[in-house]
Amino acid sequence: MSTPYDEMWEKLNLDLDAHAGLLQVLGKFYGDIYMSQQGRLRGMEYLDFVLTEVHGLRIKELQDAKARGRKVIGTFCVFVPEEIVLAADGVQVGLCAGAEAGTDAAEKILPRSTCALIKSFVGFKLSRLCPYIESCDLVVGETTCDGKKKAYEIFADYAPVYVMEIPQMKNACDHDLWRAEVLRFKDRVEEVTGNTITVAKLREAIRLVNGRRRVLQRLNELRAASPAPISGRDALLVNQISFYDDPVRFTEKIGQLCDELEEQVKAGKGVAPKDAPRLMLSGCPMAVPNWKLPYIIESSGAVIVGEESCIGTRNTRDLVDENGQTMDELLNALVDRTMRIDCACFTPNTERLDNIVDMARGLKADGVVHYGLSFCTPYAMEAFKVEKALKSADIPMLAIETDYSMEDVEQLKTRVEAFVEMIR
Ligand code: SF4
Ligand code: SF4
């Protein structure tokens, strides 16, 4: 079946047949997991629209921006400072890496024992399935975990890759290293975009991204209400969309959604019964369309009230200080915020344990599901410490390790249902 976007996709050198197959699967998956929910609010129409047009209208917008001279920069990690890209009039997109399509191709050049997220971004590129990757003038990697670090060396044969060095500790010398990396990134972004970043432009970009973080903070706060005013699936989708939709439009639309949710909370209405077990997710990021575990959890009678992950509060908890008057002050503020990110790639990472306990208490979570992607050593190792910290706060935890395949759905259902029953 032809679509108005075929010509654009062809120009982007996508494999049109494989891409059509991917869209079909995505549409069906979205229908089953999202459209089947009862009584969704008006604000969800925005989510449905963005998702339906994820490879259509948004890609057209990117192509139009490129035709006007703007550059598109793709990223995989919340460490990459979007404010720098926006201040140079670039467009930043999070490259989703949440689907299994392309895994066979990826496994031809990567070990099978690689996490699904890495296989996904390599597989999407090799199989010519992702219009976002194909739109990028620069793809920014980072030295977070070993898997990603080495995969970018391979990925660089297929795409214009730039890698930022992320420190592994948080001492003064690590701040200095990261500051030097942010400066090096600024130079590279200026070179790619052909634009010089000024103090005024950087401050404006910081305010813009802070605005998006604030609206997501507001959404998270509303989820502390009982009954929960929004499903975990919808809240996850909001966070996922924040990585690739236009930041101004996103902030406005999610602000409207929050207004609606506030009304629901005042009226004592929610998406789940008041006594439904409230669970929090914690761990690896869940990129579009990785909705498997949230769907299983919410089909078992529980409701998800928060995501402690990079596609969740790890990316929105802290704001950048907007008051800097000089380039140095603004860059220092950017560095300070990112160095507060509690990714499991850091050692030690005790602040994550405190943050998880505080968040679970604040959201009145009855339990935590720790989600690790198979072969992700940092999060799998840290799960033991998370469980211990939660146990001393009397909050039960279930540790799940999985990937993007559907093979373990029944087994996961059994484990999640038993956990929910235990909490009940
Ligand atoms: S989990 Fe760590 S490596 Fe992954 S996006 Fe977050 S900060 Fe980056
Ligand atoms: S999920 Fe774990 S292994 Fe995979 S890219 Fe992220 S930190 Fe690395």
Question: What's the layout of helices and strands?
Answer:
Layout lengths: L5 H6 L4 H20 L8 H9 L4 H11 L4 E4 L6 H6 L3 E4 L8 H4 L9 H11 L4 H5 L2 E5 L3 H10 L5 E4 L7 H22 L5 H24 L9 H10 L5 H20 L11 E6 L8 H8 L3 E6 L18 H12 L11 H13 L4 E7 L3 H16 L4 E6 L6 H15 L1
Parallel strand pairs: 1-2, 1-3, 3-4, 5-6, 5-7, 7-8
Helix pairs in contact: 3-12, 10-15, 11-13, 14-18, 16-17
Bound molecules: iron/sulfur cluster (2 copies).
The site of one iron/sulfur cluster has 9 residues, from loops.
Descriptive account of the structure:
With 424 residues, this protein is of the alpha/beta class. It has a domain at 11-31 and 41-201: Rossmann fold. The chain has 18 helices and 8 strands. It has helices spanning 6-11, 16-35, 44-52, 57-67, 82-87, 103-106, 116-126, 131-135, 146-155, 172-193, 199-222, 232-241, 247-266, 292-299, 327-338, 350-362, 377-392, 409-423; strands spanning 72-75, 91-94, 138-142, 161-164, 278-283, 303-308, 367-373, 397-402. The strands form 2 sheets. Strands 2-1-3-4 form a 4-stranded parallel beta sheet, sandwiched between helices. α3 packs across α12 (232-241) and α10 (172-193) crosses α15. The model has no long low-confidence stretch (mean pLDDT 96). It binds iron/sulfur cluster (SF4) (2 copies). One iron/sulfur cluster is lined by residues 77-79, 144, 285, 310, 341, 343, 345.
